[in-house]
Amino acid sequence: MDAILSLSLLYATAALALVLLVRRLLRRAFGAGPAFGLWLLPALALVLPCLPGLPARWSVLPALRVLPDSMATGTAGTDAAMSMPWLRWLWLAGASVMLLRLAVHYLRLRRQSRALPMAIAASLRHALDDFDPRRLRLHPAGPAVLWAPRSLVLLPADFLDRFDAAEQRLVLRHELTHLRRGDALWSLIAGLAAALLWFHPLAWVALPRFRLDQELACDERVLRDAPRDETAYAHTLLHSVGLSPMPALIPWLAEPQLKERLTMIQRHRPGALRRRAGVAALAVLVAGSVFVAQAATNNRKASSNLTFNARIQPRYPEAAIKNKEQGTVVLKVLVSKDGRPLRIDVDPATKAAPDLVESARETAMQWRFNPALKNGKPVEGSARVPVEFNLTPLPSKTGQDKAEKRSSK
């Protein structure tokens, strides 16, 4: 499980960095729609370790150093420290707080929204096309789209006074385009991902850029269907009141987005051929990512369960200490589907006394492993575990500091 989570985080980091680097270039070359599609990559990256891969064979694990009991002070917990289970609890606490914050904000938005008066609904019927007016709500944060099992359009109480008839039509067309594109759901997924990656700096850098790219893609789609409305659309944006970005909500205009959106309207937008080329390039990029993942993830090799195994250390045999025997025992462990050792053999290249070999084998039979995966299912796998018996203690931190001071003099 630790290996899968680590790979997911690594892939998500690489995907976020890639999107942040190329989103502007892709937008200028192929349009805002394909550029927004780039945000599929981080979502895909999180599940890449669960995709089918290539068969795995031997997994070589880090060497385990064994010292006599009298010298082992301060070293027995090394593997346990490496696993750092407290990091999981810290992440879980932070994610719980962020998810609770998102849920409270969403419920507050739903509770504060009210049914649209029939008079306003009747006035807007000409701009709604076939949209169900029961999905319109009054809320001070409107105009905006709010995710729900059937996503809602929020309108301010002064919507009819704030915008004239032409502007009302443009604003509602924009919000309905969000609904047709499924943007409300994507915004919810982005908010959930940001909550789970609360500790990741790139996640917080990416979130406002995701929202901007979403708005640009929606604007482009609206103006592609009605190119003659460019001037009126820009005028409506320019005279709108910007809102601070809020979780679970897609406002008509967020404060930091005005300049970019007006620039996109004024700039010549790519034609259909270039947009299709952008979609094709995006499909190739996604397919290539999946192909690379097949070779690196889901046929994961067996690995040691560090948290469990750190509590079961091999004993340095007293006879070996007396005879000053040292050496590295290389164990070849056949790991079952449930992570238990089925068979333990000793690599012929091992050069160690028999009592050291026997101590390493007896202890390894009590260990647990993360099983190998093939096509997402646990299978039997193999791991090579070097166990180093050494009579020379590791230098202490104090000793290292003293040595560094002497060398500096």
Automatic annotation (TrEMBL):
<feature type="transmembrane region" description="Helical">
    <location>
        <begin position="38"/>
        <end position="58"/>
    </location>
</feature>
<dbReference type="InterPro" id="IPR006260">
    <property type="entry name" value="TonB/TolA_C"/>
</dbReference>
<dbReference type="InterPro" id="IPR052173">
    <property type="entry name" value="Beta-lactam_resp_regulator"/>
</dbReference>
<dbReference type="InterPro" id="IPR008756">
    <property type="entry name" value="Peptidase_M56"/>
</dbReference>
<keyword id="KW-0812">Transmembrane</keyword>
<dbReference type="Pfam" id="PF03544">
    <property type="entry name" value="TonB_C"/>
</dbReference>
<feature type="domain" description="TonB C-terminal">
    <location>
        <begin position="301"/>
        <end position="398"/>
    </location>
</feature>
<keyword id="KW-0472">Membrane</keyword>
<feature type="transmembrane region" description="Helical">
    <location>
        <begin position="86"/>
        <end position="104"/>
    </location>
</feature>
<dbReference type="Pfam" id="PF05569">
    <property type="entry name" value="Peptidase_M56"/>
</dbReference>
<feature type="transmembrane region" description="Helical">
    <location>
        <begin position="184"/>
        <end position="207"/>
    </location>
</feature>
<protein>
    <submittedName>
        <fullName>TonB family protein</fullName>
    </submittedName>
</protein>
<keyword id="KW-1133">Transmembrane helix</keyword>
<dbReference type="InterPro" id="IPR037682">
    <property type="entry name" value="TonB_C"/>
</dbReference>
<feature type="region of interest" description="Disordered">
    <location>
        <begin position="373"/>
        <end position="409"/>
    </location>
</feature>
<feature type="transmembrane region" description="Helical">
    <location>
        <begin position="6"/>
        <end position="26"/>
    </location>
</feature>
<feature type="compositionally biased region" description="Basic and acidic residues">
    <location>
        <begin position="399"/>
        <end position="409"/>
    </location>
</feature>
